[in-house]
Amino acid sequence: HLQATTTLSNGVRMPWFGLGVYKVEEGQEVEFAVRTAIKHGYRSIDTAAIYQNEEGVGRSIRQGLEEAGIGRDELFVTSKVWNADLGYESALAAYDTSLKKLGLESLDLYLIHWPVKGKFKEAWRALETLYKEGRVKAIGVSNFHVHHLEELLRDAEIVPMVNQVEFHPRLSQKELRQYCQDKGIQFEAWSPLMQGQLLNDPVLEEIAGRHGKSVAQVILRWDLQNGVVTIPKSINENRIVENASIYDFELSGEEMARIDGLNLDQRVGPDPDNFN
Ligand code: NAD
Predict the structure, then answer these.
(1) CB of 141 within 8 A of CB of 151?
(2) Is 28 among the domain residues?
(3) pLDDT bracket for residue 34 (50, 70, 90)
(4) How many domains does the chain divide into?
(5) CA of 157 to the centre of ligand 1 (A)
(6) Residue 145: count of CB within 10 angstroms of its CB
(7) Helix, strand or coil, per DSSP, at residue 57
(8) What is the tens place of the pLDDT at every residue in 164-190?
(9) Do residues 189 and 228 touch, judged by C-beta distance below 8 A?
(10) Which residues are annotated as part of the binding site for substrate?
(11) 233 domain-assigned
(12) Which protein residues are within 6 Å of ligand 1, measured from CB?
């Protein structure tokens, strides 16, 4: 079930579930996390140029694929162009740099990391070029509010296939999710566990207890039942396994509604309107 996929607007299949490697150190730490995840059936890895671990991610992908006896085409790899590289030429160059560090011939998904004012449209033209030239399977954005998407779509040739944003029970992004759904943009959650801040929530604890599951599993299951791609981070083998064990139970409509009710429009990361 870990290999279950959503089909993006261009027909490319993306796993619903993957591993995020933000703040995972280059070297042994990231290599262990990625290899362990692949060993336990993960088929999607989310990194970014700014995480400064693409080389280790690349090495561990090669090892992990070999150990699992699977091909590159069975793994979905995402990276992101950083804010400093949001010009047309610089975004193209940033893509080549990421490929080189990862040691890959192409990425499955390349994202604009943040909607830096006055810059993201030029970068989008570069991603469109990469896509049209067949150098990347899918392109998308990250941290885009509705107004950023509207501005982008005014001139875009290609509608982003994905929008990856902060999403968890305290920030449920109802309007943005609906907008993305209407435009055929797959919604993807970052910091789905609110970086650990939700693990003592009494409502989530109660629901978890009922199912004999952990709070992390309940949250990640809520993502899937909402049609949201999710990429929790862990560098701990037990948690890597735990986070992926979410296909053997189902939240009821009432439980989904109670979790929806936890929204406080509260962020752990910056508001995209004030970040560049
Ligand atoms: P997260 O919500 O995935 O939380 C990760 C933290 O939760 C871990 O460090 C660990 O302390 C804890 N944790 C994980 N599994 C647990 C478990 N089973 N039980 C208890 N604690 C557990 O936070 P994140 O890393 O910020 O987000 C996930 C991924 O999203 C990142 O690694 C990155 O790939 C991506 N991301 C993207 C952006 C963006 O701007 N596009 C920003 C932040 C993160």
Answers:
(1) no
(2) yes
(3) very high
(4) 1
(5) 32
(6) 18
(7) helix
(8) 999 999 999 999 999 999 999 999 999
(9) yes
(10) 113
(11) yes
(12) 20-22, 46, 113, 142-143, 164, 190-196, 199, 214, 216, 231-234, 239, 242-243, 269
**CA 260 vs CA 101, 226, 264: distances in Å:** 40, 10, 10
Q: Which amino acid is at 25?
A: E
In the numeric block, the tokens 């789905």 are attached to: 192
Binding-site positions read 113
Q: Amino acid identity of 133? A: E
**24 CA: nearest ligand 1 atom:** 32
- Give the total residue count for the chain: 276
Distance CA 235, CA 257 (A): 31
pLDDT band at 262 (very low <50, low <70, confident <90, very high): very high
Structure token digits, residue 157: 């040739």
CATH number at residue 10: 3.20.20.100
Task: Give 221-236 pLDDT, tens digit per residue.
Answer: 999 999 999 999 999 9
Domain with 79 in it: 5-263
Distance CA 233, CA 30 (A): 11
Indicate whether this model's pTM tops 0.95.
yes
Taking the C-alpha atoms of residue 175 and residue 101, their distance in angstroms, rounded to an integer, is 37
Q: Residue 276 above 80 pLDDT?
A: no
Q: Is residue 92 part of a domain?
A: yes
* Residue 268: inside a domain: no
